[in-house]
Amino acid sequence: MSTPLLEIKNLHVRVEDNEILKGVNLTLNRGEVHAIMGRNGSGKSTLSYVLAGKEDYEVTEGQVLFNGEDLLEMGPDERAAAGLFLAFQYPIEIPGVATMTFLKAAMNAQRKARGEAELTTPEFMKAVKDASNLLEIKQEFLRRPLNVGFSGGEKKRAEILQMALLEPQLCILDETDSGLDIDALKVVSEGVNKLRSADRSMLVITHYQRLLNYIVPDVVHVFSAGRVVETGDKSLALELEAKGYADFDETHAA
Fold first, then answer.
1. Predicted pLDDT of residue 89
2. Cα-flanking dihedrals φ and ψ of residue 84, to 5°?
3. Exposure pattern of 130-145 as b/e (b: 16+ CB <10 Å)?
4. What angle do CA 108, 89, 228 make, to 5 degrees?
5. Distance CA 106, CA 197 (A)
6. How far apart are CA 24 and CA 47, in angstroms?
7. In the CATH scheme, what is the homologous superfamily, with its name and number, of domain 6-253?
8. What are the residue boundaries of the ABC transporter domain, all occurrences included (predicted)?
9. Gyration radius of the chain's alpha carbons
10. Higher confidence at residue 251 or residue 211?
11. What does the alpha-carbon distance between residue 150 and residue 75 come to, in Å, rounded to a whole number?
12. Strand order in the sheet with 84-87
């Protein structure tokens, strides 16, 4: 039996004096898409930040294994080079830096961290063209400064393009549906679905079941008060939509 791609065991995390994660357990196998759902403040985004290596989050107990290696011992750059990608809820704007320039720098930084040679310009241009065609992104979009003046949907599409080019093993989508209208949500979801594969796993963090109509998960986890309180198949998301989170909070308290 193969090693799970991601194993989170009894993870406890503090931010300043507040314990946010209180014993998270979660296993993600290769090729699987897992959704994490929960109300605001339940710890969903904290988990994504800890996995990506964001500062100011103190792990006080527990273990995270990525491909069998201790993820918590790696710096953010090492995690990215190892194949972890975090799509932010609010992608940053970088005035004066063309999207193409940013993409090339990101790809070469990752290759350097892996001890690989930088891409030549023709190699890079071919990779971008192939990914853009797959995701139906127009070339003029790539000449604009990164995320400057982009709509919410365009920012998310730019992140999905990064994801396609960096070819991560694990994609963490932190509330990628935030601020998107239904048309933008469909476009972004189509892009994500085109990147699903037997070698790539995804952790989709969301408040709402509507995203999961388009990115259909294999497994759904419900977060409450800093831990996973329920795990099931995609029908669990529909149950949450119908009942709300209160029943799960009460079940956990009991």
1. 63
2. -110, 135
3. ebbeebebeeeebeeb
4. 110
5. 22
6. 9
7. P-loop containing nucleotide triphosphate hydrolases (3.40.50.300)
8. 6-250
9. 18
10. 211
11. 30
12. 84-87, 170-174, 201-206, 33-37, 219-224, 227-232
The per-residue DSSP string of 182-216 comes to HHHHHHHHHHHHHT-BTTBEEEEEES-GGGGGTS-
Q: DSSP state, 70?
A: E
Amino acid identity, position 215: I
DSSP state of 73: G
Q: Which of 56, 70, 71, 73 is nearest to 17 (CA)?
A: 56
Residue with tokens 């350097």: 112
As given in the structure block, the two tokens for residue 30 are 């290769």
What token pair was written down for 12? 């406890």
If one compares 114 and 69, the residue with the highest pLDDT of the two is: 69
**What's the pLDDT at 254?**
40
Contact 65, 113 (CB under 8 A): no
